[in-house]
Amino acid sequence: MLKGFKNFLMRGDIITIAVGLVIALAFSTLIKAFTDFVINPVVARLQGGQSVGLGWQLGEEGNDATYLDLGQFISALIYFIIFMAVIYFCVVVPYKHYQSRHGVAVFQEPGPVKTCPACLSEDLPAAASRCLHCTSEQPPTVGAGSARV
C-alpha cells in the first residue's frame, strides 16, 4: 500500500504540478506586493484630493462597508493580468518547449471539427465516424484520413 502511494507521488506529472504550484504561489506573493505597493498608490494619486479611494460612497460618509472601491478592483484586475502573463511566459512556454523536445504536444490548438447533421453538435472531430452525442453515423469528411480511389 505504501509502495503504491510512493509510486503515485514520484510520477513525473505530479512533481511537475507541485513545482508549478510552488512557483505560482511565489509569483503570486510578489505580484500582490507589486500591486499593493506600486499600482495602488499610483491609482490613489491619480484620483487626487483626500478621497478614500477611486470609487463612490453608496451609504453614510465614512462607512467603509458601503464604499464602492473601483481602485481596488482595477488593482485586482492588473494583478490578475500580470499573474497570468507570468505563469504563461515563465511556466507554460518553457513546459511546452521541454515537452516538444521529448516529442509530446501539450497546450496545442484543437484539431478541426465538424457539425453533426442530426443533433447539430458542433464539437465533433473531423475524422469522427459517429456523433459523440446522438451516436448517428457521420458522413466521411474529405481530407480527414479517407482515401479516394
TrEMBL record:
Main localisation: membrane
Pfam families: MscL
Top-level taxon of the source organism: Bacteria
Keywords carried by this UniProt record: Membrane, Transmembrane, Transmembrane helix
Subcellular location: Membrane
Membrane topology term: Multi-pass membrane protein
Entries under InterPro entries matching the protein: MSC/AndL, MscL_channel
Transmembrane segments: 12-31, 73-93
Protein name: MscL family protein
